[in-house]
């Protein structure tokens, strides 16, 4: 059954990519509102001022893991706030963005344990690069953009910048899918409601491509935002391989989520990730993984909020997360409760308790494996923005 579904799924993802690129390129070729050449030139000469923005962000944290890892390193599928019993820096970021009428660029440099662990596979000089990209508008209305470089991934609803998320720590789906990509991206904002993008990149969260792999990866996204911005729906895809050409196994990944701002106090995010990977080169059968997540946040006071999260991650064949030799791979349920205090509009203090419970013993506790992991984390994050 799976061998039948898989080619059909691959066709849908590729079709999505082709449609996104085709519609965007067709739109770029149309004159904007039937403007004459002289009108476009007149418009181009009006607002020529370049906008410069500089951001600073610091996310400090302390985590106590009740499994008490001997090397102070938390489970290796976590890349944020992952040091035990240490006061540490998760992310220190200094970024600059420049925007003109038909061009834009972003540069961000970082330090912290997020950079240390999430970019451990990259070249030394690139591990401190949060983003570095440049883009141009391909139409007069600036609805169609081509960006190239290192940029945020189109997959998922969470960011490496913690105060942009409903919870202190990242969900399992976020930690185990790309935070960033390196390549080129075509984005078309069709109108206020619909946006589509198509990406070609070096691989699954890779600046440097896998040695021996000559095949680039592709990704797409389709996003709908309701007119009142209370509902956002997204479907994103990724097709690629993490193997060299001689042993290439293709994988196909889908990321779906909905963001629901029910009122000023209550918000909710529901997400579901699933993917397939070819068993071996030339084979028509596939292994799979999946992960649902639900996050609910309630602001019970102007400066106080609670957030709860439930999640499940099933990776029987250890495609993404190692099950440490468990018979059924990595199958884990997670629950967390989060308390936020908005100290200042730019300063956020958080504390979170989180527990993982696995079907088998996949977590280290001393020299033994156990089926659970509980920790408490707290952080203070400050975000500063400067504009010209």
> What is the terminal separation in angstroms?
58 Å
* Total of domains: 1
- Classification by helices and strands: mainly beta
Order of helices and strands: HHEEEHEEHEEEEEEEEEEEEE
- Per DSSP, what share of the residues sits in E-state strands of 2 or more residues? over 45%
Using the alpha-carbon principal axes, give the shape: globular
Helical fraction equals: 10-25%
Main sheet properties: 16 strands, antiparallel, barrel
**Could you give me the name of the CATH homologous superfamily?**
Porin
| Strands in their spatial order, largest beta sheet | 1-2-3-4-5-6-7-8-9-10-11-12-13-14-15-18
The tally of beta strands, per DSSP, is: 18
CATH class: Mainly Beta
Number of helices: 4
CA radius of gyration is 22 Å
CATH topology, what is it called? Porin
CATH architecture designation: Beta Barrel
Low-confidence stretches: 1-15, 17-46
Task: Please state the average pLDDT score.
Answer: 89
TL;DR?
By secondary structure, this protein is mostly beta strands. Helices cover 12% and strands 49% of the residues. The protein has helices at 2-29, 37-44, 113-118, 172-175, and strands spanning 51-65, 87-99, 103-111, 129-137, 144-152, 180-189, 194-201, 217-225, 231-240, 251-261, 266-278, 286-298, 304-315, 330-344, 347-358, 363-365, 368-370, 372-387.
């Amino acid at each position: 059954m799976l061998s039948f579904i898989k080619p059909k799924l691959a066709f849908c993802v590729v079709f999505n990519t082709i449609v996104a690129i085709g519609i965007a390129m067709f739109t770029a070729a149309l004159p904007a509102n039937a403007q004459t050449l002289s009108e476009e030139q007149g418009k181009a000469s009006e607002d020529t001022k370049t906008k410069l923005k500089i951001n600073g962000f610091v996310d400090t944290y302390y985590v106590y893991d009740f499994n008490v890892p001997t090397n102070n390193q938390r489970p290796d599928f976590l890349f944020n706030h992952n040091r035990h019993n240490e006061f540490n820096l998760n992310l220190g970021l200094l970024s600059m963005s420049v925007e003109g009428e038909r061009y834009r660029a972003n540069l961000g440099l970082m330090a912290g344990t997020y950079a240390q662990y999430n970019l451990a596979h990259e070249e030394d000089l690139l591990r401190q690069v949060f983003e570095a990209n440049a883009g141009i508008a391909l139409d007069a209305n600036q609805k169609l953009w081509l960006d190239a470089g290192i940029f945020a991934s189109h997959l998922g609803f969470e960011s490496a910048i913690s105060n942009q998320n409903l919870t202190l720590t990242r969900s399992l789906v976020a930690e185990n899918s790309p935070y960033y990509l390196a390549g080129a991206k075509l984005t078309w904002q069709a109108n206020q409601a619909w946006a589509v993008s198509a990406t070609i990149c070096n691989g699954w969260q890779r600046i440097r491509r896998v040695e021996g792999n000559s095949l680039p990866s592709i990704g797409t996204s389709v996003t709908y935002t309701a007119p009142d911005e209370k509902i956002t729906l997204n479907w994103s895809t990724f097709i690629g391989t993490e193997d060299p050409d001689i042993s290439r196994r293709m994988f196909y990944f889908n990321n779906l989520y909905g963001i629901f701002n029910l009122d000023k106090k209550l918000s909710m995010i529901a997400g579901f990730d699933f993917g397939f990977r070819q068993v071996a080169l030339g084979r028509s059968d596939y292994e799979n993984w999946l992960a649902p997540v639900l996050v609910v946040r309630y602001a019970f006071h102007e400066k106080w909020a609670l957030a709860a999260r439930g999640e499940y991650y099933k990776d029987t064949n250890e495609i993404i997360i190692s099950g440490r030799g468990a018979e059924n791979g990595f199958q884990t349920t997670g629950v967390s409760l989060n308390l936020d205090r908005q100290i200042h509009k730019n300063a956020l203090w958080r504390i979170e308790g989180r527990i993982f419970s696995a079907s088998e013993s996949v977590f280290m506790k001393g020299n033994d494996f156990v089926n659970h992991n509980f920790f408490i984390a707290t952080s203070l994050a400050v975000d500063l923005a400067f504009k010209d």
